[in-house]
Protein 1
Amino acid sequence: MTYSIVVRCPRTGEIGVGVQSHFFAVGAIVSWAEPGIGAVATQAMAEVSHGPGVLERLRAGDAADAALAGALAADPHGAARQVGVVDASGRTAAHTGSSCIADAGHAIGEGFAAQANMMAAPGVPQAMADAFAATDGPLWTRIADALDAAEAAGGDIRGRQSAAILVASGDPAERPGHGILVDVRVDDHEDPLREVRRLAELSVAYARIDEAEQLLAQDHPEQAVAIYDELLSAHPTNTEFAFWAAVALAGAGRPQEARRLADPVLGSGDGDRWRALLARLPPAGLTSQDVVDELLR
C-alpha cells in the first residue's frame, strides 16, 4: 500500500505532499509540487506523468478538480490509478480507481486530500485528515504527523520501506529551481517515517545556514550569530553548524565563544580540511583575515 496526503497551509500558503509505502524510493514516483501552483500525489498502479501533467493543467488555470479530471480523461487505465491534488488556492480533488487494491479510499477537505490503497485496515485516509486538521506549526511537521497517524491506523498491509516529504512555497518561483522549501526522501529504511522526519528537520536547519551565510556576507555577524545559536541549541554535535557559528561569533567580536566552538572542529581528524576552508573565506567575502587569524590562534 501507499498512503499520501497533499496539503496547503492557509496561514503561509505553502503547499506540500507526504507519502509512505512498502516500495522502493516512493518519493521519486508519487510526490510532485510546484511553488505557487499546487501539489500532486500519483500512486496505486501509478502513472508518473499525472504528477507533472496535473501541475501543467493547474499552471494553465485549471482548479484542482478540473486538472485531475482532464488528466484522467486521457488515461485509459484510470481505474487502476489513485491521485490526490491540491492547488495554490487550497482547492482539492482525489480519485481512487475501482481497480485499486483494497482497502483503498480517500478523504478530502479544505486544504487537503488524503489517499491510501492496500490498507491493512480501513480508516487510514481519515486518520491522516484528522491529524492534519488537529495540528499546527510548520507544514512539514503537520505532514509528518499525518503520516504517523496513517501508520498508527494500520498503514500498509505489507509494512514500511520508503517515505518522502516535499514542501514548496505558496508563491510562484521567481527563477526556475527556486521555491522548494523541504525535499527529503528515504528510499529504503526499516523505519522510514522516523528517518524522513529527522531529515526534514535537518533540511530546515541547513536552510537557516544559507540565511546566516548571507548575513555574514552582508556584514551582519550579530544577526548570523542569533541563527547559529538557535541551530546549535537543536544540533549541538553538528560540526558544520559549529564551524560557521565560530566564524560568525569571531566576526561579532566574541572571540572566546568563537574559539570554544572552533577549537574542537579545527583540532579534529578533519581539522586540516576545516583550516584550509577557513583560509578561503576572506577572498570570498564571508569574513575578514582578522577573524581567520583569531580562530587559528
Protein 2
Amino acid sequence: MFPDAALDRFAARVRALPEKRRAWTWRLIRIGLALSAGAGTALAHPPFGVLVGLLGYPLLMILSERSDTPRGAFWMGWLAGFAYFFIGCWWVAEAFFVNPEQAWMAPFAASLLPAGLGLFWGVACALYRRFAPIGVVRVLLFAALFCAAEWLRGHVLTGFPWNPAGATWRAGGGMSQFASVVGVYGLSLITVASTAALAPLVGPGAARGRLISAGSGLLVLAAVGLFGAVRLAQAELRFTDTVVRLVQADVKQETKWSPEAYRSIVDRYVALTGQPAARTPDVVVWPEGALPASANDVFVSADATAMADALRPGQILLMGLARGEADPSAPEGARYYNSLFALVDEGGPGLRIAAVYDKHRLVPFGEYLPLGSIMTAVGLRSLVHMPSDFSAGPIPAPIRVPGVPPVQPLICYESLYPGFTPGAAGRPDWIVNASNDAWFGATSGPRQHLNLASYRAIETGLPIARATPTGISAMIDPWGRIVQNQRLDPGVAGVVDAPLPRPTAVTPYGRWGDAFFFAGLLAALAISLFAGRRPGLWPLTSPTRLRPRG
C-alpha cells in the first residue's frame, strides 16, 4: 500500500548515507516522531481540540513495534509521554511563581512531573514490544497495555489521573456521552483502540486485514458518536426548586495571603453573598480555601458574624477552609484537614456547623509529602516548603443537611477521580466541586480541570455546582454541559444564581463502575495474546511474525 511504498523510498535514502550518519539520522527521526506522537495527543485535548493529534496513538504503536528491543520501545513511550504531560501539565510551574522565593523550582516541576508520568507510557510500550502478537489483533494488546498503565497512573501514590485519553472528547459533546456507560477509562480504551487500529495500514500483512482494522476503528468511533447524539437528543433538562448561588470573588493567589488583603477578601465574599436576587438562593457556595485563614480562627472572629449577616435565615453556606484538630497521636499534636463546611444561618448570632467534609484524596507534594518521614530525614520537606502534611479524610460520603438535597462534595483535585460519588445505594442528588484553580493563573490548567470535572456529571448523571476563586465557576448539567448563562469565566468577579438541575436515572457507570472497562481490558488481552499466536484463528492477515524495521 502507499504508506509502505513511501516509507520504503525514504528508508532507501537514509540507508544511502554513511554508516555513522545513518545511525544518528534514524535515532533523531525516531526521537522526533515519538515527541510528535505525545505532543499530538496532548493537543487533541481541550482547550486545544486539535483532534487530528489522535493519530499520535497509532504512531506510537508503530514506533514501539518497530523498535529493535523492548528497551528501545520503552524510550519511545517515555519520550511520547514526556511530551504529552509537558504540554498537558506545564501549568504546574505557574504555582511556583506565586511566591518569588519558590520560582527557581518552576523548571524542575515542569520537567520532573512529565518525566515521572512518562514512565507509565514507557513501560506499556516495552511490554507491547515484548508480547506483540501476529496480525491486526496486536491493536487490542497495545490499547489494553496502554490503558492499563493509564489506570495505574490514576492510582499509584493516590494517582494523578490528569487528561486520560477518554477525556480528549469535550465534556458535554456527543462523544463524551458514552462515559455514562463505561466511564472515562472505558472511553479511553475505546479511543486508543479505535485510533490505533489505523496503525496496521503501515505494516506487514494482507491489505484486506489492514483495511478491515482501520475501518473497524472508525466504525466504533462513529457508533460512540451516534450513541452520544441520541442521548443528547433525548436529554430533558429539568430543574428542582433549589437555587444555588456560586460565588467567584476573583481573588488572585499571589495577593491572597498578604495580611493587608485579608479584610478586602472577606468583604468581597460577604458582599457577593448578600447581593440581592430575584429569588433568595437556598445554598451559597464559596470555593476551596476561600479565606486566607483556618476555620479555627474564622469561626471565632467577627468575620463569622459578617458572614451570618450576609445570609438569610435558613440559607446554607458551603465553604472551603483548612482546619486543625487536636490529636495527641499526631507528630505535632494536631492533624490538619482541607475541608468543606456546611454552615446554617438560624437567625441568631454566628453560623451553626451542620456538616463537615474532609478531603480524602490529597495532592502529592501539594498537600502531603509521599514517604514523609524519609523526605523529612533527608531535608526535602524544607526544600518543598511543606512544614506539615494535611491528613486524608474518611471515605467520601454525601453530606445531608435538612432543606437541601443530599450533596457529594469534591474538593479540587478529587473531581479528577471517577467512581468517587456513590452511583446507586446512597446516591446524592448533586455534586459540589469547591476548587482553587487560582494557583495556575491564566493557563490551560483551569479549562482542562473544568473539562475533567464535567466528566463526573456524565458518569453519575448528577449536576455539578462548581465554585472557584478566579474561574471557571459554573453549573454543569447531568450530561456534562454548562447550563446556559450559568458560568463565570477567569478574571470575572460575580455570582451565578442557578436553579439546581434534576439528576438523571442511575447511569450504567453509576451502577457498575469500571466493570465494563476491566471486562474490555481482559477481553482485549485474551483475544490479542491467544488469537494472535494461532495462525488461521483470526484470518484477517497473513501469519507472518511482525518484525521491527530499523
Protein 3
Amino acid sequence: MRDEVADGWKISQVEVLVGLPRRDIQRACYEGAGGLGIVKPRNTTWGWRVYEVPDVAKLFLLAQGRRQGKTLDEVRDELASCEGARDVLHKLARCEQAAREACDAQAGASMSACALRCAIEQGDVTVFAGLIDASFAEDARAFCDAHAALGLAAEGLLSKLFADLARVRACGQAPSSNDAKEICAASVHAVSERCALRAADAAELLARAMNASGMGLTCELWLGPATWTYANAALEASQLDAQRAGATEEECHVKPLGDAKEQSAV
C-alpha cells in the first residue's frame, strides 16, 4: 500500500530505475563529511524517504557521470550549480546530446567495420549499398515521417546518388559539371517531394546523410577512393546554383525604384 500512497519512489526503486548503487544514492542525500548533499528526498510518516522527479533526475545524472569514470566528488561539483529546474533541464539536455553523439559514433563504427570486413572478404557488394541506405533512413527520420524515410531508403536513393556520381567522375567530369549537378538536383527534388520539405531542407538532409559517421569509408570502399569527397563537392555545387537561381528569381520580382517613382509622379 505504501507504494500506491506515496507520490514518489523508494530508494530500492531508484536503484533499479537509474542504475545507481544504494550506497551512492545514500551518499547523494547526506551533507557534511562523506556526503554529497545534491538531493534532499522527502521524509514520510512511515519512516522512509520519497524520491521525487527532480531527485531522480539528479541521481540519473550522477549515474551517468559514474559510467563515464568520474568520481562522486567530481559529479557533485558539476551538479552543485543545479539549484532549480532550469539548471537540471540544461544538464539533462547536454546529457541527451552526448548520448546521441555517442550512439551515432557507435553506429558509424559498426558500419565501418562491416564495410571493411566485406571489402577484405570481397563479399557481396550490395552490402555497401545496404549499409548506406540504412544509415540514410536513420538520418531522414529526423526530417520527415518514418514511412517516407524508409521508402526512400528502400529505393536506394543515397546509394544510387553515390553510384551515379561515381560514374560521372569516372568519365573525367568535375563535381561542378552539369551532369554531376543535375544528378544532385534530382535527388534533392525527390527528397523534397517525398518528405514534403523545402528544397533547402531536403539538401540539408542529403548533406547530413552523406556525412554521417562511417559513410565516407563505406562509400569509398565500394566505389573507389575520392568518390565520397567528389559527391560532397557535387552537392555543394548544385546547391550554389540553386541559391543563385533563387536570388535571380527574387530580383526579377522586385520592381526598380525608379519605375516606382515615375508611377507615383504620374
